[in-house]
Amino acid sequence: MKVALVHDWLVTHRGGERVLDALCEVLPDADIYTLIHRPGSQSPAIESRRIFTSFLQHIPGIHERYRHFLPLMPRAIESLRLRGDYDVVLSSSHCVAKGLRAPAGLPHLSYVHAPMRYMWDLFDDYFGPGRAGLPVRAAAHAVRPWLRRWDRASAARVDRFVVNSHHVAGKLRRFWNREATVVHPPVDLERFTRLPLEGSGQGGYFLWLGAFAPYKRLDIALEAFRELGAPLWVVGTGQEAARLTSGAPPANIRFLGNVPDDALPALYRDARALIFTPEEDFGITPLEAQACGRPVIAFGQGGALETVNARTGLFFGEQSPSALAEAVRRFETWEGGFRPEDARAQAGRFSRGAFQQAMLSEVESLLRVARKSTPDARAV
Question: Which ranges carry the Glycosyltransferase subfamily 4-like N-terminal domain (predicted)?
Fold first, then answer.
C-alpha cells in the first residue's frame, strides 16, 4: 500500500521521530510530509525518503526558531498538498500534523503522541510567570483560544485515532471528544539489553535524562539533590539550559550535555536509578532504564503509571523537590528488594516489533472499512 506519512517537524531526533523511524521501516514506499526538515538530523530510514515541506522551510533561521512560529503552523500544515496517489494518510502528531487536509475519500489514521500540550493542560508550564518573558506570555494568551478551537476542529478531519497511552486517550476525550485505540510506542530495546544485568547499578549516581523543556521539570531534581547531596548526573540540553545551568552547580551534580546514543546503555546500566520528574504522556526513558536492568523513581502521573510497576520503581505524589527527596530516601530501603531481571522483563512488553505489527493492523483495519464504504475503492 502507498502511504503518506505526516509528521510535525524534522529538526531533532527524539521520541516522536523514533516512532516515525519505526513506521518507515515497515512502510518502505511511504513519502513524508512535514512543516520543516533539517537535512541530516534524522535516521537513514527517514532521510532516505521523499520529504515534502511547507512554506515555513524557506524562512531564514527556521530550524533554530521554529517554536516562535506556532501561530503559523496550522496554516502551514493545511497548505501541504499530497503529491502522489496514496491509499491512506498516517500522521504522527504532537502539534499540528493531524490537521493536514487529505483529499476527500482518502482515509486518515492519526497516531497522537499528545494534543498540543502547551495550549491545553500544560499551558502554565510553558507560559506561566517565570517561564517566559512578558511579550511571549502575552502573545501565548492571545493565540491560545484560537489554537484550541483549531486543534479541536481539525481533529474532526481524522477518521481514526491511535494514541501512545491510556493517559493520552483520556485527553482526547476531554479536549476533542474523540475515542482512540492505545498502541504503546516502540522502544529500541535491543541496544539496551546487550549489556549483562550482573554488576549493574555500580556507578553510585542517580541519572536524569531528557530535553530541558519546561514541563520536564528538571528544576525539581536539581533542588532535591542539592538538599540530598547524593550524586546526580544530568544528560541533555534544550530551551531552558541557560536558566537551569546558570551559576556553578553543586559538587554532587554533573551536567553531561548531549551524550551519543551508543553511550546511553552504559550510563543507564551503571546508575542506581533513573529520576523521572515530568508528567509525560508516555515517556520512553523509564523503559530504556528498565531494559538496562535499572529501577525508576517517577512522578506518579501520566504514562509512567503504564510503564513502571511496584517491582521496578517508586513513585512520588507531587512535582516538588521535597516529594522527590522523600522518594529518594525511601529508595534507600526499597532498593534492597529490587531485581534487575524484573525491570528488563517489564521493558520487554514494549518492543519495536509489537508496535509495528499493531500499527499495520490499525492501518489495514481502517482500509477495510474505507473499502466497504466505497465499493469501487482501489485494491490494496
Answer: 15-191
State pLDDT tens for residues 327-369: 999 999 999 999 999 999 999 888 899 999 999 999 999 999 9
Please report the sign of the dihedral spanned by the C-alpha atoms of residue 107, residue 97, residue 31, residue 78.
positive
Q: Residue 236 is placed in which grid cell?
A: 541533555
Tell whether the torsion through CA atoms of 78, 80, 85 and 86 is positive or negative: negative
Task: For 31, list phi and psi in degrees, rounded to 5.
Answer: -100, 160
CA distances, 129 to each of 67, 215, 234, 300, 357 (Å): 19, 14, 25, 25, 44
Report the alpha-carbon angle 250-240-76, nearest 5: 165
The Cα 151–Cα 175 span in angstroms is 9
Judged on CB neighbours under 10 Å (0-12, 13-18, 19+), 152 is: middle
Which triple of cell numbers denotes residue 111? 497516531
Q: Are 127 and 136 in contact (CB under 8 A)?
A: yes
For 120, 162, 178, 270, the CA distances from 175, given in Å and listed in that order, are 8, 15, 8, 41
Maximum alpha-carbon separation in the chain = 69
The model carries a pTM of 0.78
CA distance 350 to 176: 27
Q: Is the pLDDT confidence value at 374 over 70? A: no
For the chain, what are the domain ranges?
3-186+351-373, 190-349
Counted residue by residue, the chain has a size of 380
The one-letter amino acid code at 183 reads V
Spatial neighbors of 198 by CB under 8 A, at least 6 apart, are none
**Taking Cα atoms as reference points, which of 179, 272, 169 lies closest to residue 230?**
272
Query: In CATH, which of 3.50.50.60, 3.20.10.10, 3.40.50.2000, 3.10.180.10 is domain 190-349?
Result: 3.40.50.2000
> Which DSSP symbol is given to 212?
-
How does pLDDT run across 23-41, given as a tens digit for each residue? 999 999 999 999 999 999 9
| CATH class, range 3-186+351-373 | alpha beta
Domain 3-186+351-373 shares a fold with domain 190-349 = yes
Cα–Cα distance, 250 to 174 (Å, whole number): 42
The residues, ordered by sequence, that sit 6+ positions from 176 with a Cβ below 8 Å of its Cβ are 115, 151, 152, 155
